Amino acid sequence: MRGRRGIYSLRGRKAWALCAALPCFAGTLLAACLHAGVWEPAGFTGTPHPAPPAESVPAHIVALDPGHGGYDSGANALVQELPVCERTVDLLYALLEQDANYTPMRTRPNGEDRKISERAETATAAHAEILLSVHANCDTSTRQSHGFECFPTPPGRTHSEGAMRLAQCIAQGMGEAGHRLRGENGIRFAYYSGKHKHIVDSTDTKVREMKSFGIVERPDCPAVLVEQCFLTNYEDVETWASEEGCARAARIYYEAICAYFGTEPLKST
Ligand SMILES: [Zn+2]
Question: How far is the CA of 1 from the centre of ligand 1 (A)?
Answer without folding.
Answer: 30
